[in-house]
Every structure is written in C-alpha cells, then in structure tokens.
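Dear support,

I submitted the protein below through the web form. The confirmation email said the job was done, but the results page showed an empty box. After a refresh the structure appeared. I'm attaching both so you can tell me whether what I see now is the final result or a partial one.
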Amino acid sequence: MNERTGNVESFDLVLFLWQRRRLIIGITLLGIIGGVAAAFIIRPRYKSEVILFPAITNSPSKALLNEQSTGRDDILALGDEEDAEQLLQILHSDQVRDRTADRFDLLNVYRIKPTHKHKRSLLAEAFEDHITFEYTKFSSVRVAVLDEDPQRAADIANFIAAQVDSVWKEMARERAEKGYQLVKNKVDQLVADIATIEDSMRVLRELGVHDYHTQTERYNEYMGAAIVKGDQRAVKEFEERFKVLAKYGGAYVTLQDRQFNEVKRLSILRMKLEQAEADMASDLPHKFVVNKAQPADKKSYPIRWLVVAVSTLSAFLLALLLIVVQENLIKIRAHEE
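What the results page shows now:
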C-alpha cells in the first residue's frame, strides 16, 4: 500500500510538472540565452603569475661584514614562513598599490572616474579583485594578476615583484640613515676627544715626560750609576728630572690609559660605522624570483560553458520556485473563499 502511495505521489508530481512544462522550458531557455549572451559580453581576462621566495636576511652588513654571522645571515638561504608573511605584508602595502596604479593608470583601466569622491576605495576594491597575493604550500608567495590585456597582466605582475625591494629599501634606509648618523656622531666625538688627549700629552712631552714607566726605570739606573761614580752634578740633574716625573707623570699615565681605551673604542665604532654605511647603501634583493610573469595565450575568465551551465540551472530553479509560489497563492485564495 505504501509503495503504491509513493508511486502515485511520484506520478502526481511528474504530471504536475508536465502540466507546467511550458513555463519551465520557457524560463530555462531564457536562462540559456542569457547565459550565452553573458558569456560573450563579459570581457575576457588573462592571468599572469610571479612566484617569489623570501630571502632569509635583511641586514647585508650582518651577513657579509660580521665575522660571527649565523645561519640566519646567509644571503643565499631561502626564508621561512615568518619571512614569507613579511613579504606578503609588503605586497599588501599602500605603497605597492599606489605605485602600480600610477604606473599603469589603473583608474582608467578599471573604469573609475578620477573625479569620483570614493575613487581610492573603488580602486582598492578593484585592485583586490584583479590582483591576489597567496602563500603557497611550498613556502613561496604567488602574485597573480587578472587583466583584459595579457601583456599588461604580465607587466603588472613583474612590476609588483620589483617593487618589493624598492619599498623594503625605503623603509630600511630611513632606519639605517639614523643609525649611521648616530654612530658617525659618536666617531666624530671620539676623534675630537683623542685629538684633545694627544694635545695634552704633547704638552707633557715638551715638559720632559715621554713615557713615565720607561723613563722612571732608566732614570733609576742612571742615577744609581751616578751615585756609584760620585757624580753629584748628574745626581742633581736626575733629581730634577724625577721632580718633573713626580709632578706630571700621574697625569701622563692617566692620559695614556685613556688614549688607549678611546682608540680601542674608536676602532670598534668605525667597524660599526662601516656596517651602517653598508646597510644604508645596500641594494641586496629581499626575494628570489622563481618564475617571471609571461603574457598568457589563453584567457582564464570567464569559462563560458560554466557561465551557461550556472545560468541554465539558476533559471530552472527559478521556474520551480515560481510554480511553488503560484500554487501557494492559489491555495491561499481558495481557503479565503
């Protein structure tokens, strides 16, 4: 009995749809026609891609000039996930978008009026629709560009990849310049301090203090010999020299020790100044380009058969929905009567 009931209900549904076949077929045909029209009206887009690997180091001086560099300072090593995230952040920056928009006149390409009050927001949305940045499972970064002109799509992708180093360099240069100036000021100050110390030591040399420890040792030897010989004139002369050493020797030793320490500090700071100068003038790339973008010879969007299929299916479902609404309205009117 249940099987018969199920068959009858199924048979009734088929009859129900068959009776309204003209409406279903008509709307479905309209969907097919609309899908075909849309498939040919939609402007085709061509896709170009650039594959990048992040570099592992951001400091050329640390990688090349530091004797105690580590594995993180290898300029030939590929970066990890953290480096890739930094690379993605650069790609998503306003500087990259604005430079790309100016270089390829994207307001005109994306048909955005330059006088529109929301042109920057519209440009940002269109940029995200046409250009994507993706972290791949191979720890690389993919830059994909869709454009109506295949050559322009490739040019935009390559241009964006090139801007990574430019933007990164500008950010690093600002910090490197301040670091360089800070170290340079310290070097200049130390050079001036050492010159002052040397001037003071030259005055002491003119007074007769040349090397306190050596002179004291020699004077003791010579004075002992003079005493043995009974040379009072020589003894008196060395006593006068000892008075000079006693008066200025302490100052000379202090200046000599200070000079030694300052010269040592100056050597270290000059090495740091050299590193800061290398960072400031560095053109070392911050990424490895695996594949440069090439003009596509086949469009990527739209897929015409898919557009037609989706349009046809949507029209068919719409026809069924209209039938359901129509039957419910008939039932509601019959119930009210």
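Response: this is the final, complete result; the empty box was a page-load delay. Strands lie at 46-54, 131-135, 141-147, 287-291.
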